[in-house]
Amino acid sequence: MVTSFSHYATRPQSEGPAWASWLGVITIVFGIFLTTSHGNEWMKQAVITHSMPASGEMPAADCPPEELEEEGLSLAECEHMVANVKGIALSAPDWFPGFQMVLSGIGTVIAFLSIIVGAALVNYRGWAPTVAILTFAALIAIDVIGFMAAVNAGPILRQFYLGDILLWFFIHLIMIVAAVAGRHGESTI
Questions:
Q1: Which residues of 76-96 are buried (b: 16+ CB within 10 A; e: fewer)?
Q2: Is the confidence at residue 112, as pLDDT, over 90?
């Protein structure tokens, strides 16, 4: 007995279209990654902002030998990590940490909501395609705003942020195109 791929790619209409299930699964996976990414960025900015001395001068690297041994680090690696934090803190304009915390906080919430939207696409709900399009549009807006902020923050921060921002922008762009195409395909049937 030979079964075609189309048998597996389509489901009864009562269960919803196959495109919605596929997009829903992808949305859930990327939503989990993006939620943690934005959450980590928010935490990084909070730690760096609150750890900076009022003078703006960062102290020399404090790398106790017992902590280095516990973490499996060399003294050079410890000093390099401290230098990276100094580089980020000193190259960030005054507006950047607060702006980035707000943007990542909003991004965390919308990315978490995208997980819920993904679940609604998998367990097809009539409202899910429209909300998915709106959610992906909001994520694209966050990507564009983050891109503009990174471009205006200077070369060191551009190096840290632009690659990830562009990657997420194109992922969200592809997802919104898939949702629009799927919804359009439903309306023509």
A1: eebeeebeebbebbebbeeeb
A2: yes
